[in-house]
Write a structure and sequence with these properties.
single chain, about 140 residues, mainly beta, Trna Endonuclease, Chain: A, domain 1, five-stranded mixed beta sheet, three-stranded antiparallel beta sheet, 1 helix, 10 strands
Length: about 140
């Protein structure tokens, strides 16, 4: 787990995601006048603009988990409709994943880095399918 305040952990995740997307050939824009908006950055993949919310994840065994909703004043709100993708940074693996918001449930998202013990594949999201790869 990363040490620091939630803001510093978030800043490291944003930097890692922006760097990975740039190295993958995307153009990355940072909202200058909306630093505390639900969109952390905008990435252009050559075809469309993608609104990205950056998150750090934690690893528990072969599963990476991350929050898919914000919690302000005790009110939880999913990002669906506000963003297109989650930019997930794993500090432990030093990898970045770009995950469509519509694939994730409303509280916590999971990406598997290893196969499930029961070999189930249906409904399982494998991290390798979403990893941002450099050119």
């Amino acid at each position: 787990m990363l040490a620091g305040t939630p803001s510093s952990v978030g800043a490291r995740a944003e930097l890692a995601v922006a760097t990975a997307l740039t190295r993958a050939g995307m153009t990355v824009f940072v909202p200058f006048f909306a630093a505390h908006s639900r969109v952390d950055l905008v990435a252009h993949d050559g075809v469309r603009l993608r609104r990205v919310q950056c998150k750090s994840c934690t690893r528990r065994g072969d599963v990476l988990t991350f929050r898919t909703s914000s919690n302000t004043g005790g009110v939880s709100k999913h990002y669906r409709g506000d963003i297109d993708d989650f930019g997930i940074y794993s500090p432990e693996l030093d990898r970045v994943y770009l995950v469509p918001v519509e694939l994730m449930p409303s509280a916590r998202g999971c990406l598997r880095i290893g196969p499930p013990l029961n070999n189930q594949r249906k409904g399982v999201h494998f991290a390798s399918d979403f990893e941002v790869r450099f050119r």
